[in-house]
Amino acid sequence: MATHPTASWQAMQDGNTFYRRQQLYSVPGKLPELSDYIVAGCQYGGPIALMRDSTKLLALGRVTPAVTKAQIQVFSPAGEGLLLFSWDQGKIIKFGWSLDERLVVLNEEGVYRVYDLQGEYQQFSLGTDAADTGVIDARIYGNGLVALTSSLTLLEVKGWEGARPLTLANPGLSEPPHAWSIIPPDLNISRHVEVLLSTETTIFTVDNLENVDQRLSRGPFTHISPSPNGKFLALLTFTGTLWVVSSDFQRNITEFETTGIPEAEGSVQQLEWCGNDALIVTWTNVVLLVGPSGETIPYHYGSSTFAVTELDGVRVLSTDVCDLIQKVPASTLSVFRPGSTSASAILYDAWESFNRKSPKADENVRSIRPDLAKAVDECIDAAGREWEPYWQRRLLNAAKFGRGFLDFYNPTDFVNMGQTLKVLNAVRFYEVGIPLTYTQYDYASPSHLIGRLTSRNMHLLALRISSFLSLKPDAVLKHWACAKIMKSRAASSGADASGDDEVCSAIVEKFEQLGGADVSYAEIAKKAWEVGRGGLATKLLDHENKGSDQVPLLLEMKEDKLALVKAVDSGDTDLVYYVLLHLYKRLPLGSFFKLLEDGGPRLAPANRLLEVYAREQNREMLRDFYYSDDRRVESAILCMEEATWMKEPNAKISSIKAAHKFFSEDKDRSFEAKMMDDYGRLLSAQHQLDMENDGRISSFGLSLNETIRLCLVNGMARKADKLKSDFKVPDKRFWYIKLKALTEIRDFEGLDAFAKSKRSPIGYEPFVRHLIEKGYAKDAIAYVARCDSPKRADLYADCGEWRLAGKECKDRSDKTKLEELRKRCPNSMLARELDQILSSMK
């Protein structure tokens, strides 16, 4: 039977506060002598990393191997080896742990690596300035680090993604600090990291904006340790005085002299917090617990120790054991404290009496009936605080017993605690080696724990816990798939297609079996690609449902055609454009267009989208696209469109000639080719005409009719005749153009000479009509006589010559037309004259 919980309790001098040392693991012979190593511990029951301290002599022998290179070993708290790797990147300045259990190693040149527990790492740098000046010290916390350079400046890095380092305010140091520490951003009101530097007798606080002297007089300090909640600071002076103050240095909490501790030899090794209300001071073989009021409890160990501050206590490791020292929780104290009269203690006693079939059980339950619900809650909470499953079961049974006497009680807390304890007991097992307390588990969340298990490749346990807690298994399955790919690569470095098929089918089958519907195959495929398994990556991507996840990786893998096909199949035009533009920038032009051409009907939508984009955004691309696809007509039309926008004559003529060339290469477009040839010759003639007139007239771009008209209006009849001849303008059209041009410039003599030059191909009625239209009716009269006789009467009338119209009717003996004119005449005088002509015809 497990020992009673109170067996490990020790009371402070006031008799009301108890602390307990719980042995988590017995690790004899598993860990080396810690005093010979530099050690970094990870919080939340995490592993420890050890590196040989080169400043200390090491006796070599059969037990201790010779080490020529710097090596870092990682052990679980149970003493199981997790990782061993060599370091050849210069002198290591500092190493520590991130929140997600990755080991961060920083060297003197400002280069830092972030290792996972499988030995894979990412490498980053603090920049050229840090490389030039060198790094002499650093502090690493969960989400970043602060480095101290040789020039005594501070550089901060946020996160572990290779962010650019930020320079903090100038600390104004003339020599390295005696001790320094940091308060992480999440514990500061300002949400910025705060650096505490011990110099001479005071402490400077430095953040990204300012450097503040706290004006202390008790320094210098050898150790500075902030509490886990960031509200208090523990300071150890050179004289051995332990001084606890608030983090703003406004309140003095307690003082304690560490110099008179029995069996404490040498200097203080570590100053760590035990939760937020007590401190641990360590020497070689002694660990001293100092309470809030200066009370102490000594703990003795057979070898050197290393302490890791936890949220609710402190973890102490030695070569023999791994212990957890913490304040006894209130619920545990209420149940098990000797002589306790609390309701929870009476309920536990009642349950024990019930098991012994003693009538005292009913009496005890009746006595605490008003506080029974509170007692049940305390028993449930106390069960979560116990390490041994034996006592966990007993406390939960006591809670279950008390719950039976309550009319209304929500069992959610009871069920949740049972689930939580089952999970905690599983991960506390020495082969897993994560000694997580209930407080730490509740603070860090179950998903964080599952992430820690997958980082150790404990996928089966992580999957079972996910299923047990009704959490999605996606993260576990993703990590398992990546680990399987890595393992298969190691097993067969020359993996063939059959090996890829086997791994792919195993991953897909497992996902379908365990419901990993939301797992992105693209992320797993990317891992396969990174380790040189391109064929496997392509096969995995075939199972990815989201084209937006498939396509970027396919482009990175240079699977260009497949990427374009997947983008087209997705129906996402933006994704198709993304692929097209990416390939257009990366591939040679010929290869790009050949890829589209070889795609056939399946890539036809991509061709159309490219054409639409190029027409609006990149005409040069469109020209190349048409040319590569041998689309002569479209190329010619493109040249014509561009010619309409051009203002420079030579460029426009060249564009039209290019359109003529494209049309002429298509035997079905001879008419268009002829039109383009004529238009090009016209533009050349217009350009020549404009140059000869020194820009006084502007004919470039006008139609042929307008150009002839412009020549006639400006007195260049010969030029007009030449254009008529060159472009074979029909006589009828030319006569119309010249009629209108001469009328426009009111050259009636020239018009008369033109009309008499030869027989008019358009007749003379157009002369009369046009002159009347332009308001030159009197000048039109001279041309009426040359018109056909049936129309003369009406034309005379239109010119206002009614008498001549009547005379024309008389000469032709056209009495009907004369009567019609009589009715239309504008006044009575003309009517009488027409009547006279009409009477003379009788």
TrEMBL record:
- Annotated protein name in UniProt: Probable vacuolar protein sorting-associated protein 16 homolog
Biological function = Essential for vacuolar protein sorting. Required for vacuole biogenesis, stability and to maintain vacuole morphology.
Q: Which domain of life is it from?
A: Eukaryota
Keywords for this protein: Protein transport, Transport
TM region(s), chain numbering: none
- So what family is this one in? Belongs to the VPS16 family.
Domain (Vps16 C-terminal): residue spans on this chain = 519-828
Gene Ontology terms describing biological process: endosomal transport; intracellular protein transport; vacuole fusion, non-autophagic
For this record, an example GO cellular component is: endosome
InterPro entries per the UniProt record, alphabetical: VPS16, Vps16_C, Vps16_C_sf, Vps16_N
